[in-house]
Amino acid sequence: MKNWIQIGVLSMITLLWGGCNDLYEEAQREESYDGATYIVSVQLNYPAGYEAQMKAGVKVKLEDINRGTLYTARTDAQGVARFETAYGLYRISARDQLAQQESMIYFNGSADQLRFTATTPEAQRQVKLNLLASKSSQLVIKEIYCGGCLKYPLEGQYQSDKYLIIYNNSSSVAYLDQLCFGTIDPYNSAGSNPWLISDPQTGEMTFRDYLPIVECVWGFPGKGTDYPLEPGKQVVLCICGAIDHTIQYPLSVNLNHADYFVCYDNSYYTNTTYHPTPGDQIRADHYLQVLRKMGSASAYTFSLSSPVAVLFRVPAASGSAKEYVNDAANEVLKPGALNTRCVKVPNDWVQDGVEVFSGSSTGNSKRVAASIDAGYVMLTSSYLARTLYRNVDKDATEEIAGNPIVYGDKEDPSGIDAEATLRAGGRVIYLDSNNSTEDFHERGVQSLHSAQ
């Protein structure tokens, strides 16, 4: 989840040695070092101006990528957390927060693909983790449904019903006008990320200061204040067909509603399996515009198993969104590829971004910097009608006077049933720490299916 305002400009360091496949094979071989352990220390580095935030007690996570083991440790007064671990391939993340007047400032950092072996020098076991500072967003991605469902009672699998929900998590009116939507390259989390930059001296890998938006940039209509979204309200964006999918497939969802928006332009996307004519309830002024199409696909590509969903705005100083994305100076080729063109979107333009990992892969790699999403949310399997849903901020939601909160949700860590609370006329405030691991959970059924 990317901030509304990014504070400080520090690169997020991801340490990566060797090719991805070699790392996994090497780490598997090193499991023969049974019983051998060593100390890894993680030093948290706060952004300029926030050095005084360093303190004892900040939780740091160390995840063994191959074995699936998660270790946690707390920092000491110098901001150092220490782990005693075995040889292997690891992912490190940390988060902290600072309350300010009307918002929270979050500090997130992550490092992926760290390999520790019997020959790793002691200095490389002392990891410096740079934290990026960001403020909570006004508009957040509340839910991502991308994995499809079964065609029950028929046989087969179905994925033409993808959607996401955008929610106004603030206390003031937000406007959808000129908000842009897209996904990034690589489409899927499995394998290596060719966009990382390697330091020729140290081998350290860093994220770029922009996201490579691939295939298409979609834009909401409106001239500035045409599409208001009140506090605590949401809007559904149909990525595929804005029709009632339940007529044929009961495990799917009804996306034919007058207040829904849809990614639809049949002059660019002619595949009617994924982009049928919108239903009779969908307003023509709720069609998103194709601001720029880079690829040649006849259906918009949004990963079934592990997408990165991105909402962003182009600042007025950079011209209109359409002007910016069509300027050749803002285009970039995928490293190592001649035909994959992407639009560069600076990280600090991102309103919200959520990274999804595939539960069917052991080779997931981070694709976005910690300023956007320091973690990830796992989609365990496709075609099970599962959805990825943002966790409720329990304290903030309970602080609202007279709020008719409904409890009993066993999937949300807060225990609050967000959908039932909203239906009861209550207000829900969702977590937004720019770390999907903390902010999201996998829900057993689509929220839109539950509401039907």
Number of continuous helical runs: 6
Structural class: mainly beta
Number of strands: 30
Major beta-sheet overview: 14 strands, mixed
Cα gyration radius (Å) = 22 Å
End-to-end span in angstroms?
28 Å
Query: How large a portion of the residues is in β-strands, by DSSP E?
Result: 25-35%
Please give the oligomerization state of what you see: single chain
What ranges have pLDDT less than 50 throughout 5 or more consecutive residues? 2-33
| Fraction of residues in H or I helices | under 10%
Please indicate the count of domains.
2
Overall geometry comes to globular
Mean pLDDT: 89
Architecture overview:
This protein has 452 residues and is mainly beta. It folds into two domains: 10-132, Sandwich (Immunoglobulin-like), CATH 2.60.40; 139-390, no CATH class. It is built from six helices and 30 strands. The chain has helices at 20-29, 321-325, 394-398, 418-423, 436-439, 447-450; strands spanning 6-7, 13-15, 38-45, 59-64, 70-74, 80-85, 88-99, 104-116, 126-130, 132-135, 139-145, 149-150, 157-158, 163-168, 174-175, 180-184, 197-198, 204-206, 210-219, 228-229, 234-238, 261-263, 287-293, 308-312, 331-333, 341-346, 350-358, 377-379, 387-390, 440-443. It starts with 5 loop residues before the first strand and ends with a helix.
